[in-house]
Amino acid sequence: QSLSALFSSKEAVPYDLAVGFGLQTPIGPIRLPANANGNLPLPKLPEVKVANVRMGQLGVTGAEVVFDIDVKNKSKFPLKLEGMQYGVDIAGARVGGGNATVPQLAAEASSRTQVPIRLDFLSLGAAVVNVVRKKQLPYKFSGKIDLGPFDQPFNLAGTANLK
What percent of the chain has pLDDT over 70? Predict the structure, then answer.
């Protein structure tokens, strides 16, 4: 949480660097000073959002719902993501979960990952039938993105209109 607070609260940190280099010369040692200062941009945590939810294949015993997940690198540095773990609830029932790959993101770039979830009408009962009939899908998409040294959790909820 402290890393998250640092990355989200500041764009950059100022620095001031003063060093000296010593050279041995025939007339004795000489010190050459070097100074640099400026602002060092800080990495930002990626933003995760549900861009779209749509109905995939529909059959007698089940349906497929596809979540388009956008991951945006808000940092001025490339971001190598180790993967994403997720779980999906529809109409209050856990319908699936798993792991998805997210490609490396260039600085300030976005990527879209498609996550298909298969709904089995028999195992989920009337809740899923109502979702398909009303073409309204209350969902919760939650999990974490593996950033290497730490994980960034996400919790996205909403209602999608299915067509």
Answer: 91
Q: How many CA atoms lie within 13 A of 147 on its CB side?
A: 20
106's tokens = 């260039």
Cα 9 from chain centre = 18
Q: Which long-range contacts (CB under 8 A, 24 or more apart) does 117-126 make?
A: 117/64, 117/65, 117/66, 117/67, 117/88, 117/90, 118/62, 118/63, 118/64, 119/62, 119/63, 119/64, 119/65, 119/90, 119/95, 120/61, 120/62, 121/61, 121/62, 121/63, 122/61, 124/90, 124/93, 124/95
Query: Which class for 138: exposed (0-12), middle (13-18), buried (19 or more C-beta within 10 A)?
Result: middle
Q: Phi then psi for 56, rounded to 5 degrees?
A: -95, -135
Q: Is the pLDDT of residue 2 over 70?
A: no
**pLDDT score recorded for residue 57:** 85
**Mean pLDDT taken over the chain:** 82
Residue 1 pLDDT level (bands cut at 50, 70, 90): very low
